[in-house]
Write a structure and sequence with these properties.
The protein has 261 residues and is an all-alpha fold. Helix content is 57%, strand content 2%.
Length: 261
């Protein structure tokens, strides 16, 4: 019985970690904020595989996230609980992603201006209307795994790899509604500790909105940020370079925060 439960759990954690690594390191800290610089080979790998792994277009994700920072908790924020309500963020973020993707495909200036520095196109899957293909392949893989190893096995794979809607909801809704604040910011960003623990440091929204250019989201030593730990490991492996000059400072004498998003 123990092994029957441990195997699906291990598969879920592996799939979840793979997905989260793409989102928090490659999409968020690298593409959206330039807090880390991907080596050319790493960038090519991410652009080639990211949409297949996550089901999300790298350029559209980065664009939507930059719009979130530009309009945080205001009327034009793509996914704010101040506008959509805590529960409504789950739907708002999906609709915002769709609008962003089609805005980029249609070369709408309201979207293009946020990603002028990203000199790569929307992924070919989305340019050819095949956005559904990664989801179909992951569904097929989950069915095969379920057939071979039990349905819990297949469900663990799919739930781990396709977890972004729930991750996004927790961060975008609770990260702007509940939890403490280390810094005064113009928005209502907060630091729900449990969300940060479970989602690679992404729950430290108040810290991140105060220092958006920092690859490290933790301010106090006990704030969990597994995403930055992964950045450091990948830097040692030669896959990327952290912009150490823009790291969020630790508590101490007053400093001038970075403002570059």
């Amino acid at each position: 019985m123990t092994m029957h439960l441990l195997r699906p759990l291990a598969l879920f954690l592996a799939a979840y970690s793979l997905h989260l690594g793409y989102i928090t390191v490659f999409y968020h800290r690298a593409l959206a904020h330039r807090a880390v610089r991907l080596q050319p080979a790493t960038l090519r790998f991410v652009l080639a595989t990211g949409n297949w792994v996550t089901g999300l277009d790298p350029k559209a994700w980065a664009c939507m996230h930059r719009m979130h920072h530009a309009f945080s908790d205001g009327p034009d924020d793509p996914h704010s609980p101040a506008q959509a309500g805590v529960l409504g963020v789950l739907v708002a973020q999906l609709r915002a992603y769709e609008r962003t993707l089609y805005g980029l495909l249609g070369r709408h200036p309201d979207y293009l201006r946020h990603v002028q520095d990203l000199d790569f196109p929307v992924h070919w899957l989305n340019r050819h209307g095949l956005w559904w293909l990664p989801y179909a392949l992951h569904t097929a893989a989950a069915v095969l795994l379920g057939y071979a190893g039990g349905w819990g096995f297949g469900l663990a794979y799919f739930a781990g790899l396709m977890s972004h809607p729930i991750e996004g909801w927790v961060i975008n809704a609770l990260g702007h509604a509940v939890g403490p604040r280390n810094f005064e910011t113009p928005d209502d960003s907060r630091n729900p500790w449990l969300a940060a623990l479970l989602i690679g440091g992404e729950g430290l929204q108040n810290n991140h909105h105060r220092f958006p250019g920092s690859a490290r989201f933790s301010y106090r030593w006990w704030e969990p940020d597994a995403g930055f730990m992964l950045c450091r490991a990948l830097e040692k492996a030669g896959a990327l370079t952290i912009d150490h000059g823009r790291l969020l400072p630790r508590p101490g004498p007053p400093v001038i925060p970075t403002t570059q998003a």
